[in-house]
Amino acid sequence: MAAQTTVSTSDIARIADVGRATVTNWRRRHSDFPAPTGGTESRPTFTLEDVEGWLAEHGRLPQFTEQQQLWRELLREAEGSGLTEAMARAALFLAFLEREGHTSRETRYLHYAEGPDLEHESLGDGMLDEIGRALQDMPEPLALLRSASLMRELAAAATRQTPDEVLSDMLDRYASESRRRGPGTPAAVAHFMATLAKAASPDGALSAVLDPACGTGDLLEAARIQGATQLDGQDRELHLAQLAASRLSLRLGGKGYCSVDAEDALARSRHTGGEFDAVLCNPPYNERDWGADELAYDSRWEYGLPSRSESELAWVQHSLSRVRPGGVVVMLLPPSVASRSSGRRIRAALVRHGALRAVLALPAGAAPPAHIGLHLWVLRRPGGGNGAEASHVLFMNCKSLPDMNSRGGRPSVTYRELLAAPEKCLAMPGVYRAVPITDLLDDTVDLTPAPRLAGERGMPQVDDLRRTLSGRRDSLGSVLSQASALAPSDDWGVSRTGGPWTMAPLADLIRTGALTLLKPKAKGGSGDSDGDDPVLTAADVNEGRSPSGRGPAGDEDAVRIKVGDVIIPGTLLSADRTAARVADDTDAGALLGRNLHLLRPDEARLDPWFLVGFLADPANMQRASQGTSIVRVDARRLQVPLLPLEEQQTYGAAFRRLHTFTTALRRAALQGEETAGKLRAALTTGALRPPPPA
């Protein structure tokens, strides 16, 4: 008999779409609420079936979509084994469905899963042989599902979508549910790494690519998008290897080759040296037991034996040993690898032999851990007759990289030009610069980009500075006058009379037609394509700027912004900082970018500025959000008071005035900081003499 699935009060709150306080009130006020079956007095657990029965009996059980029901069944499968293992089992089953063509509810496979549970022994030898043949290239393919209901849900989902699309949706949910440093690499970073590998390749192409610590296969999937057809991976965790193998098999669809092994690549590599065009790797960080003693005489340490504290440099050398001469390696590494004293000799050898080609600094938050900015190392294995050896190393600050999608045009240099011959590209202060190898081989061999990008400041011209300051003083005075005129006065201090508001969730307004919720395309809206249409990105909303992204023109499925639309972010940057906007003429016609919600009100019933004022309230956003490292906003759970349109417009006018006031203050602050910066630079370079003390 299978163990019953248990849930906490937080789980019950998510199931019923209410707050935890509401669940506590139910327990206190309803004597028939299910009794705890485990846990502690302060953290009780309940049987899921009992809770769902009680919620259904009292009319509090929401209607689940097909995707939500599938995820609920997956969580049941994960009970006791963990979410990653359950995801791996589901991925293997979807790969089996794809290869055998079993995509209906009456498949032969489901005939063996009629009971409430499925054990391998109940399949029979014939069925086990069939699974083994279908998934013979997968790591331990017979580790399939235990839950018959989950198999039915997966098979049913595969009739509505392809198995690849089903798994893709589940992976998105899996990534958002993860509460730890996930086993994957964010899609944007993975795409960037694959782009760099292709740009650094001598022939500008990728065919055979390896990831020796592949996790869920994000980097190999990015390489596939860049044209790679032979995808090889390893991961020490069996379930991640199963998940990556199934994912890549579904994505390739028979138009390529993939192989993923469940082994530790450092201790037991399944690949010989010199067989790959490129290696993409996001290795484990800060591991002291990576095998330094056991592997002390390994032939891979061409650039020096890594110390016990330099596991990342062991991964760097392992990756270099697996590419052909001239092959490319792109590594995602913590910034400490660039400067730790214990790795100085290996860094010097990598630089001296021309293996290290570039170090790029990513902004904090681009990839976990979110509080630090990681580095990308681009390396090339020496040899191969691909031209002159490297004489310079490229250093780049990607946070300051010019926006390649801005309306102001594209930079005149490409990544391929920068990586092939950085010394021939004119340096851009603070953004990128080629440094001679001889300048790097000092006592520390510090490869941190920031010190290498800090150029010498020129002496400001005093006459130009005076003219700039005169114009800035007039502009700053005008902005401050505007802000002063908009500042709240005594008429803002009148107390409101009447009882508490009746609040309504946006889900109710959407059901009644007063509001329409639109989201960007699942596979588009990134704002980083080569199209001609402007895209409003999440960064634009958070920073209060005009649409800066670019998207493909003529996309009929894309969401286009109209004047009066209310736009809110899909994720929160911090608990006390929220952003929302009412679209104006500048935004009109732009495409809606990823991680944004667009609310289109019926202006005969709802005032846009009234909506944006209440929706941007931090407390409102927090009540409608979930997650820890990535806090996602469920727009349907946001609440607004039910007020007549005339009263809404009164509140809307007040919110609009506050928006104009804060915008003026922000402009004044930016102009003031820029003015102070120019004066500070003039003083520190000796161009100006300080005025007499006041």
Automatic annotation (TrEMBL):
Any one Pfam family match given in the protein's UniProt record, by short name: N6_Mtase
Alphabetized InterPro entries for the sequence: DNA_methylase_A-5, DNA_methylase_N6_adenine_CS, Restrct_endonuc_typeI_TRD_sf, SAM-dependent_MTases_sf, Type-I_RE_MTase_Subunit
Domain DNA methylase adenine-specific: residue ranges: 170-403
Residue segments, region Disordered: 521-556
Coiled coil: none
The keyword DNA-binding appears for this protein: yes
GO BP terms in the entry: DNA restriction-modification system; methylation
Keyword line: DNA-binding, Endonuclease, Hydrolase, Nuclease, Restriction system
A GO molecular function held by the record: endonuclease activity
PROSITE patterns linked to this entry: N6_MTASE (PS00092)
Name of this protein: Type II restriction endonuclease subunit M
